[in-house]
Amino acid sequence: MCTQQRKLTIIILVVASIGVVALTPGTFASSGDDTLNEQLSAVLRQHGFTGRVGLSLEQRLGRKIDNQLADLGRLAFHDSLLGLNDDNSCAGCHAAPLGFGDSQSIAIGVENNNIVGPDRIGPRNQRRAPIVLNNVFFPALMWNSRFNSVSGNPFDNSAGFQFPLPEGFSLSALPHLLTAQAFIPTTEKPEMTGFHPSVPGTNDGIRAAVVDRLNANGEYRKLFGQNFPEVKSGAPVIYEMLARAIAEFEFTLVFANAPIDKFARGQKNAMTDDEKRGALIFFGSGNCVSCHAVSGQSNEMFSDFRQHVAGIPQIAPAVGNVTFDGPGANEDFGLEQVTGNPNDRYAFRTSPLRNLALQPTFFHNGCFTRLEDAVRYHLDAIGSAPSYNPVAAGLDADLQGPQGPMAPVLARIAPALATPVTLSSDEFRQLIAFLRTGLLDPKANAHDLRKLIPARVPSGRPVHDFQ
Ligand code: HEC
Ligand code: HEC
């Protein structure tokens, strides 16, 4: 800086500070941006939010991503060869353009019409498939956290990976929780396996049948051979190799560079004023962060990965292939299904909120199709439940039938959600702006994600029809 510039800067600084002194505290709002930035920075610091979790992937894995293995996983993820019913792949429920989330309110698995999108039809399962972005950082998976890393860290198997029986702790030697998780969907009858009498009677039997298919396919043998030298020298593909490939693909699906992350890393103009004000509500008066946590084992994922009763409407499909809970078979008992403890009834995992904007439906059963409606309900579930209307919520015709009972659900609602959060219309708009765009990694957009759908899969079967 030359002397003249420095003199000028000093003059400006002096003028500026005189200006500040001259202002009364009330007029301080005119320097709104700085105040807002200060407030938000302080709140993020207080919660330990760094905006750097996405950058920590390879360090936490302890190695580089293996892109060749991930690409094999991507192909397998989209191939119905993995489904013994021959009509579904992971991608049938986890659709690339939707952030590998569900096109449906409640997933449709086997006996589908090969369409992935609004026109998918078939018998429904019980819940909505969550998006599979950033799952590498989730210490507990599924709506009831039934797959979890006991250490609280999905990268650390030292205390074991806990699954319901029959798996129990048997998948604990695998390197990451997602590698362990990849052992499960192919064994789920309503999702991929089907109910044909020829289906093997045990999960291990089903997995053996799936790898038999891979071993009988020259192209898969070649691809696994490129990744696992023992296969190249003639050894069979084993299920663990498939699981490693699928998990590696999921490791590449890190989209954690949202405006809030950039802001936290110092780029103050990365967020709009509305998003910043919405964030202050989220972390402050709205107390959303008490459940949608970012600190510690939350890995900045906006979930405490615990279950709470949020008082969500109970919807049940007209035609399904999973028996629902309760006397009317129209309820979902959530965490109780895992623990057997009636105190856990209706409790579901706090939804991680990153890239929420990609989802066509919300909550564990997709009972809302517009984010505004979902949040308005969530701000006052007790007050909103009586007027919930599946038609107005935009649900498909087969989900518009009578709902499961709400009184027992609301009787158990989490204390933090029992008192309504009252927001002005401006505040509501700001909160939505934060949720919709403040938490969205711009790279996670339908156009780019769609490119991850392979043109063809190694089995040579047709790829699903993605709408
Ligand atoms: C029939 C639809 C369907 C298919 C097929 C399917 N999933 Fe899912 N997936 C779901 C549903 C529904 C859930 C949530 C279930 C629950 O919580 O009870 C889920 C949950 C997950 C989760 C946990 C996400 C989270 O936020 O905790 C991962 C990871 C996942 N699936 C990966 C896969 C993989 C890999 C495959 C293929 C091998 C697959 N899924 C096949 C429907 C499906
Ligand atoms: C007591 C804990 C708790 C608090 C407080 C809380 N939430 Fe939630 N939130 C949940 C749970 C649990 C779910 C999932 C409920 C379900 O689907 O059954 C959820 C779901 C959501 C969803 C739907 C996400 C999806 O994937 O469908 C949004 C959006 C959301 N919360 C935003 C908020 C906001 C904004 C606040 C603050 C005003 C807030 N939450 C306060 C526990 C909480």
Task: Provide a descriptive summary of the structure in words.
By secondary structure, the protein is mainly alpha-helical. Helix content is 35%, strand content 3%. It has 19 helices and 7 strands. Strand 2 and strand 3 form a beta hairpin. The N terminus is likely disordered. Bound molecules: heme C (2 copies).
Order of strands side by side in the largest beta sheet? 2-3-4
Tell me how many strands there are: 7
Share in helix = 25-40%
Task: Note the main sheet.
Answer: 3 strands, antiparallel
Determine and state the CATH class of the largest domain.
Mainly Alpha
Query: Runs with pLDDT <50, length 5+?
Result: 1-31
Distinct small molecules bound, one entry per kind: heme C
Tell me the distance between the termini: 57 Å
- CATH architecture descriptor of the largest domain: Orthogonal Bundle
CATH topology description of the largest domain? Cytochrome Bc1 Complex, Chain D, domain 2
Query: Strand-and-helix sequence, N→C?
Result: HHHHEEEEHHHHHHHHEHEHHHHHHE
Q: CATH superfamily of the largest domain, please? A: Cytochrome c-like domain
Q: Quote the beta fraction.
A: under 5%
Please give the radius of gyration in angstroms: 24 Å
- Principal-axis shape equals globular
Counting DSSP H or I runs of 4 or more residues, the number of helices is: 19
Content-based structural category:
mainly alpha
